[in-house]
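Hi! If you just cloned this repository, the fastest way to understand the data is to look at a raw example. We've pasted two of them here, unedited. The first protein comes first, obviously.
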Amino acid sequence: MDLTPLFRPQSMAVIGVSLTNDRHPANVIYDKLNLRYPVSVYPVNPKGGCLHRDKVYSDVTEIPAPVDLAVIATRSKNVPDILSGCIDKKVGGAIIISGGFAEVGHDDLQKQIVSIARAAQFPFIGPNCLGVYAPDQFDTFFLPSQRLIQPDPGHVAIVSQSGGVLVDQIVKFKAQGIGLSIGVSIGNKALIRETDLLSYLAQDNGTRVIAFYVEGFGQNEGRTFVQAAHECPKPVIVLKAGKSSAGSRAASSHTASLAGEYTVSAVVTISPERYFQSADAQCPTHRQLRQPRGPHRERLR
């Protein structure tokens, strides 16, 4: 699968905008994209109509121009048909913001959308996620711009199962003067998973350091990821959740993840201190990347 449309779109469709509720997640995403970012964006709602004087399309297939990326924020039961429409339209990929899948016991529905996507080699992130934040490029987080502290563009990528952890790290990056290349919330990671994103980011010219927050891996998936991280030419850091039994239960209820045996994960992950020593040795520019700038520099040393 070609993941480029997920991270470098020129045109986007936001599917699920409300004609009456400006606070709907799809509306928040659409307004940000339409007003703040250099992408063409098209709102979609089955009823059609207008939104802020912009034409609302009743289906993604009615959009007259090519669409690189679809953002889906609708009821979960509608997602399979929407994915099929995106495939018919030859959309490049999708971010499924919608919840209501395996994290609440609807495993069959999640398997259905995975089956549809795999048959068409159609990549999607999610479901049950915030999606992607790429500074100065695009943003699918359903947080109003005034509520999201935005770091400067940089060379560190973060991939997180938890949207909350990702937003928290973005805030810390801003405070510490660390630039972000891309932030990815993968939620249930039903199709595109950590190893897929590691492979993509390893080849991304704009990324020099790759960080992951992982709540759990599938059976035998951890070994594959560790091997890929070992072979990656860039520094990789992994923060693994689920050390305690309570943490494991929280991970399972949050994104339907199996937290796995933490002692096994601990063998293949490293402490932050060891990580920075290793990263500095492997990537001379990394030492500069993590140095704070501005008024926080002295305080954070």
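Ok, and the second one:
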Amino acid sequence: MSQNSPRTEVDKEEKTLQGWIPTLATDDELREALEQAFGYRGDITLTLKDGTKIEGYLFDRRTAKTLDASTVTLYPKDREEKLTINYTQIARVEFTGKDTAHGKSFETWVKKYTEKKAAGEKNIRLEPEKLD
């Protein structure tokens, strides 16, 4: 698969949603995709039913019994104000931004530390990655 090909499945080994475009055939699939987007630590792109595309960081969702009463709120990449969108307006969800939390778990840190120590390194320091 090329780097630019959209993913329709989440690789369980990779444990990142980056690049994933979930199927939204049912109300439950839409709800689950937006719940995943809420926990995602990168930007997403929403395509609305009117064709509008909005890229930004989703930081809140309000779920209710009906889609009409459920909303998400995000900070669009190209504006300063928050934007609240009703679930019924959403046609597509894409996990387009870099997953800034990927590979940064404590377990990953311990594994890198252990590898460096086994290689004989002294004064081991693991520096954080620079954010874009």
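That's it. A detail worth noticing about the second one: The first strand starts at residue 44 and ends at 48.
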